[in-house]
Amino acid sequence: MDIKGSKFIVTGGASGMGRQFTLSLARDGADVAFCDMNQDGIKAVEAEGAELPGKVLGFLCDVSKEDQVHQLVADAAATLGGLNGIINNAGIIRDGLLVRKDRETGAIKKLSLKKWQAVIDVNLTGVFLGAREYAAWALENGGGPGVIVSISSISRHGNMGQSNYSAAKAGLVAMTKLWGGELARYGIRTGAIAPGFTRTPILEGMPPAMLEKMVKPVPLRRIGEPEEMYKAVKFIIDNDYFTGRVIDVDGGLVL
Ligand SMILES: NC(=O)c1ccc[n+]([C@@H]2O[C@H](COP(=O)([O-])OP(=O)(O)OC[C@H]3O[C@@H](n4cnc5c(N)ncnc54)[C@H](O)[C@@H]3O)[C@@H](O)[C@H]2O)c1
Q1: If we measure between CA atoms, which residue out of 76, 85, 13, 16 comes closest to residue 43?
Q2: Domain 7-249 carries which CATH code?
Q3: Where are the beta strands (DSSP E) in the chain?
Q4: Residue extents of the structural domains in the chain
């Protein structure tokens, strides 16, 4: 699919990788409706994208809410005059060990259901809703060509302290595979990318010593850049013989 002239939704577009995907797609000539919950961030990215070849329009939407995602897809399609896909990027982290014994008191601390559910709601249900609402819209409007790209993580292999996050990121890879089968007949392809540590606001706030420790086991000895993640997203959109698969972009790191 040609990116130039295409129309995409990007979720979580006000920061980090979502901001990059939004602005890079527009730079490459796509019209983009991005959503986020951060109103100031939405305004900032809209301003950054104002002079790009493609349109950059921000929408307020919580991807974990069914009615809001339905409305986002309807509004984006109406404003852009159609849709060719969605980049399911919005994600959060609420880390914690499954159980932990306090060394001094012996008290057992559990990963709370609240933390579990918060991550599942945004990182897994949010991807499900984005894909479902885009696909339903496409079917009502004559089918593809369309592409659903979802952002997984190297943590999908199981990263200690991330039961919730690892489950969501593995789950979306499984859905990407099965949706590739289910949606091919309608001209809709799917793909996921699984980034390793990437330079976004989350990592920028980390102390240098901690960052150094993190990159030590990475064969390429550095963190990834959001532009490098965009190259993988672009490959999935561009290559019409790609569906149902995940691309690892992690500098060769094995967890
Ligand atoms: N940064 C990394 O090292 C890394 C590595 C692997 C995967 N990822 C994944 O990449 C994606 C982007 O991460 P990032 O590092 O750019 O994070 P980020 O925190 O910079 O950006 C995430 C954006 O999503 C938005 N968001 C959060 N909850 C939302 C919701 N319910 N509805 C709509 N928007 C919401 C936030 O407001 C924020 O703007 C996430 O899915 C993350 O899990 C990140």
Answers
A1: 13
A2: 3.40.50.720
A3: 7-11, 31-36, 56-60, 85-88, 99-101, 108-110, 146-151, 188-195, 245-249
A4: 7-249
Q: How far apart are CA 121 and CA 125, in angstroms?
A: 5
Q: Report the residue among 19, 20, 34, 37 best suited for mutation to probe ligand 1: largest number of ligand atoms under 8 A from its CB.
A: 37
165 is a catalytic site residue: yes
How many Å apart are CA 133 and CA 114, to the nearest integer?
26
Percent of the chain clearing pLDDT 90 (strictly above): 94
Pairing mode, if any, of strands 108-110 and 99-101? Answer: antiparallel
pLDDT in tens, 162-197: 999 999 999 999 999 999 999 999 999 999 999 999
Put residue 142 in one of left, alpha, beta given phi > 0 → left and psi -120 to 50 → alpha: left
Nearest to 236 by CA among 178, 196, 176, 167: 176
